């Protein structure tokens, strides 16, 4: 649930900030008549994202065992790529996202009503599709999809409340710190998703070494204990991983953490420490 909550919170806040910026721009520009177009685009993006998630689940449920394992492995690897790209993109884009969106919406207003709806749709749908893919990938290690679904729903709900508070100027969020800390946690989550993808490839007989364990600490990490469920659900840490799983985790996590924590090559400190979209 925690991993799904983090995904929902992070992706949901990005989408909520986008919507808040668009709404604030229209309100301040005295173009409230175009607000319905923004909500139309947002609704279409949400609907497509839900349909994409349902398609992933439906497809996986109607495949043979090895095909299902291969499908889930591809989804896990794709989710790892997307979350890594998203983490680094947001680190650089957070400082100028508001100005970029205002400029694009201004251009869309000049083109016409449909362009406004399309612009809102495109601004939100990327986050929605990423959320669906990440949810599907992270839910594969869960015993039931209900728990991850609750987690991601709570995360999205929290992000909506935070976004509304920012829009209403009721709260100010240090977005630089928020995206840094959630980025660090998501790198570990993504490492776990990749590790699970490698295990799926071994289950599908694409990669060897399914029975070649790196270590077995089942005597220390009780599979039935709450902390084992926490580590497994959040970071896919298991008591008896294969050698390839461990290698994949280390090869991904260590370089990505190094690159993420490396100081950005920009002059001066980030200018968006506390963000207000209004």
TrEMBL record:
Keywords: Membrane, Transmembrane, Transmembrane helix. GO terms for molecular function: ferrous iron transmembrane transporter activity. The keyword Secreted does not apply. Coiled coil: none annotated. Belongs to the oxidase-dependent Fe transporter (OFeT) (TC 9.A.10.1) family. This is Iron transporter. It comes from the Bacteria. GO terms for cellular component: high-affinity iron permease complex. The chain crosses the membrane at residues 6-27, 39-64, 70-88, 108-125, 145-166, 178-198, 237-261. Its main location: membrane. It is found in: Membrane. Pfam families: FTR1. It is a multi-pass membrane protein. The keyword Membrane applies. It comes from Acrocarpospora corrugata.
């Amino acid at each position: 649930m925690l991993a799904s909550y983090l995904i929902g919170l992070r992706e949901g806040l990005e989408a909520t900030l986008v919507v808040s910026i668009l709404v604030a721009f229209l309100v301040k520009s005295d173009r409230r008549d175009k607000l319905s177009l923004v909500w139309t685009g947002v609704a279409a993006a949400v609907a497509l994202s839900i349909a994409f998630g349902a398609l992933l689940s439906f497809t996986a449920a109607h495949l043979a065992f090895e095909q299902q394992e291969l499908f889930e492995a591809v989804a896990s690897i794709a989710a790892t790529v997307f979350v890594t790209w998203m983490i680094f993109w947001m680190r650089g884009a957070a400082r100028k996202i508001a100005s970029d969106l205002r400029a694009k919406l201004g251009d869309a207003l000049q083109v016409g009503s449909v362009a406004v709806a399309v612009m809102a749709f495109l601004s939100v749908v990327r986050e929605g599709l990423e959320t669906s893919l990440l949810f599907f990938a992270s839910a594969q290690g869960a015993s039931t999809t209900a728990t991850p679904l609750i987690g991601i729903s709570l995360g999205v709900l929290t992000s909506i409340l935070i976004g509304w508070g920012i829009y209403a100027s009721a709260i100010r969020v240090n977005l630089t710190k928020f995206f840094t800390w959630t980025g660090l946690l998501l790198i570990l989550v993504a490492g776990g998703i990749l590790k699970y993808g490698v295990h799926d490839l071994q289950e599908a007989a694409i990669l060897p070494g399914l029975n070649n364990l790196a270590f077995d600490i089942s005597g220390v990490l009780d599979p039935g204990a709450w902390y084992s469920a926490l580590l497994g659900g959040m970071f896919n840490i298991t008591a008896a991983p294969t050698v390839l799983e461990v290698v994949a985790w280390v090869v991904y996590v260590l370089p990505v953490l190094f690159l993420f924590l490396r100081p950005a090559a920009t002059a001066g400190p980030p200018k968006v420490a506390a963000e207000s979209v209004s």
